[in-house]
Structure formats: C-alpha cells, structure tokens
Known about the structure:
Elements: H1 3-14, E1 24-32, E2 37-41, H2 54-64, E3 70-79, H3 91-100, E4 106-109, E5 116-119, H4 120-123
Parallel strand pairs: 3-4
Antiparallel strand pairs: 1-2, 1-3, 4-5
Amino acid sequence: MNHQELYSLAEQARTRAYAPYSHFTVGAALLTKSGKVYLGCNIENAAYGAVMCAERTAFFTAICEGERDFAAIAVAGGHEGEAGDVCAPCGICRQVMAEFCASDFEIVLGPESDIKVYRLDEILPLSFTKDNL
Ligand code: THU
C-alpha cells in the first residue's frame, strides 16, 4: 500500500462523514504494520463537544479490533462537496497518535495532487507520553 493508495482510501471514508454543522468532511485511513487498513470519518453531534474526528474514529475502531502496531494514517478533509485539501490532524488526535505510535509513524496529507508525508515527531514535538510517567 503506497501513500497515494492510502490517501484514496481516506477520500472514500470521507464520503461517509456526518458533518451537518460544520459542513467540513474528513476521512482517515489508518494502516497497520501488518498491512490492514481501518477507516474513519468525522461524526458530529448537536452537542458540539461530542464531535469525533475522523482520525480518532479510525484509531478507536482499530484498537477495538485488537490492533496495536500502526505504520501510517492518511487524512483527507475539506468543505463538503469540494476536493480534499490539506487537513492537518487536530491536537487531540495528535495526542492519541502519540499514545499508540512510534515517532516515525507517518501522517499522509493531501491534496491528492500534492501528497506530503510527515513523521509524528515532526507534527507533535516535545510530546507528553507514557515515557514521562
Ligand atoms: N476534523 C476532523 O475530523 N479531523 C481533523 O483533523 C480536523 C477536524 C473534523 C471535526 C469537525 O467535525 C470538523 O472537522 C470541523 O472541525
């Protein structure tokens, strides 16, 4: 599975987003080290604090299925009805990544015509993790 393919799966997951309040739809495709992919989309709520991001939907689904070893996540997001653009994970999602992933975990961002790949320690430097406890 290359970065482009993983990003395409994130775009597919994005079509399932439930975003009636922000109209900003996001999809994520999380690749395990064994080659399996778990999808996620953002799921909003009338009580805004209950909103779940696409990245965490994918992580929590995978973890619930027994996965623990992750290689990469692709994220595709943008305004409803428009092509996906750069959609960098929010701080809470970065913290969830830091809980389960090594510093070389890859974050694959769009747009599709200009895929860029970042390492977790690049997008969350000086992180607080279980190693600090
Ligand atoms: N959102 C995500 O799903 N992932 C991100 O990386 C950024 C934001 C969602 C949350 C909310 O439903 C909408 O995008 C607007 O913030």
